[in-house]
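Supplementary Note 3. Input sequence used for the single-chain structure prediction.
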Amino acid sequence: VGPRLRSADDRLDAATARLQHLAERRIEAAEAAVERAAWRRAAADPERLLRRGWSVTVDPDGRVVRSVHQVAPGTEVRTRVADGTLTATVKAVDADPAPPADRAEPA
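The predicted structure, written as discrete structure tokens, is reproduced below.
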């Protein structure tokens, strides 16, 4: 085997090693991205929030109740908790007073 063939064989081995190394880095980066996405998804999981004590209340049309101004006394609402759903009738609506102007939330 001549020196040119050995040199070509060495270059091929080096290129193969570089490609293998690059492929391994790409796989590691993809695995890390999948792990980060799974963590973000788990952190935002509504069921996880329910297990922590939060609940979600919806009006008769299934819209999430975000404000006391969305319902009136006599409205039937459904509240989802970690282990099921509660159905209730609103007896009273008590809105918080408006915050002082310096503490008002931005629109």
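The chain has a mean pLDDT of 91. The longest helix spans residues 3-43.
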